[in-house]
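>> received
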Amino acid sequence: MAEIICYGSIAIDELLWLPRWPVPGDDLHPQAEAICLGGPALNVALPLSTWGHSVAVGGNCIGDDQYGRMIVERLTRLDLDWTALAVEPGRRTTICTLLITPSGERTIIGRAFMEAAAGPLPSLEGARYLSLDLYGPGRRDAAQQAKAAGLNVIAGDIASTDDPLVHLCDVIVLSADVLRAQQPERNPLDYAASLQAAGARLVALTDGPRPATLLADNRMLKAQPPQLPIHDTTGAGDSFRAGLIHGLLSGWELERILAFAVAAGALRCTRAGGAEEPPPLVEVEALAMTVETWD
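>> returned
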């Protein structure tokens, strides 16, 4: 039985490190390339598994094409329950091409996401947390089943306080950069507070190199991410979410939870891709000890 269920997007990430951002008519050659497991479900699941938790993963169906076979082959090497992952003959597997500039920032070009189909939810028996992303079908049904079974639900980037998922979530993780891009008129911190007022027990707001915020227990706690060399920012928010889950399951105080989550997100940026080779627990714990938190 899994302690944590991660349900959402499952994909292959193709990473291209560019010498600069291209302009129309440009002719560029990547400085480096990589192919990795990707998608928020795996980006959250793999660090949690590495840190000693029992994790099951599910989400969109994958195909029996070369990318689907690549996902299956790589998952067989990992200590992860992926038996709920559905492979459908003839279906295109979701793929993301990530264009990464020298600063580590990236642009994502997704393929086959518009035709993605929801796969089965892993067994909820014995589980304590369901982690969701909102980039595909089946998420609301998964949240409803989890709440009915008594699980805590944690989701990312809910775009409206009117979204029915707000009332199904115990924890919501937001990206200030995503909010500014999608709704530039909205103040990210005010929106985070409105989600908490709408029913979420805990709301976290990440903001790249700027302080992260945690709203819980009538407190507004902040933490400054450590400055580390940036290789690729893919999956930083997902690693932050994994850090929150680890801290909550460990029963820590809010300051330690936020420091650990911030450290996990920062260390993810020193690695390629969002899922594979997550930072080991001892490395995250050591960095978390250096993270300053304040009210």
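>> The chain is about 30% helix and 25% strand.
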